[in-house]
From TrEMBL:
InterPro entries according to UniProt: PLAC_motif_containing (IPR006461)
Organism: Coccomyxa viridis
PANTHER family: DUF614 FAMILY PROTEIN-RELATED
Membrane-traversing stretches: 65-88, 129-151
Pfam (any one): PLAC8
Name this polypeptide is given: Uncharacterized protein
Keyword field: Membrane, Transmembrane, Transmembrane helix
Amino acid sequence: MTDSQKCIPQPDEVIPATPAWDGSLLACCGDPSTPRGWGICCLTFWLPCITHGLNLKILYTVQKAVLGVLLFFALGYVLYCIVIPAMYLTVFKAPDIVACELNVIYTQPTSGPVDPDFGQKLLDCQKPAWIKIWVAVAFAWACAVLLIIYLTTIRMKVRRRLAIPAAHNSCTGFLQDFCTMWWCAACALCQENRTLHKRASAIPHVRTVPTTPPVLPKMEV
């Protein structure tokens, strides 16, 4: 057989399918008629940490799933729902800043042209707060990047457990999964959930262990 013929599948040759994700990345709802359809889509939209925990439960154990949910919640919800609003209220709405702003507003003339330095005076009132705001923004971005890196490592572990090939090499594969999680985290979590449920038997610790003891051959005396 020549080299050109080796590249052509023979009629009786069975070509094994390459393991891949169950559905495309943008097929977030999958099959709407199944539990992995609209249900997991809505759950991931409102509570992505729960979907992440369900994925970890299949991939690892319940204990690691609980830890993963807590880490997701700490880096995600606590950051965006508590830390950033609290920083805004305590910095921009601090009493001294509000008093300075009100003083600038009420000292403006009631008639005639507006003070040309009105906007600059308001900015000067908020100037002490800008350093704190930039610290808060840097902290927010750091938490966001750490969360995406964490989700990226989990996605790469799903790839390895299910033998789903990555692009080119490990570095490029990490960048691919990182960008996927950064731009489409909810869709990626749904895709992982569908794939793990469909191919859970391929994961070593999920395989069913036979309960029937093996039959040992009788030894002749």
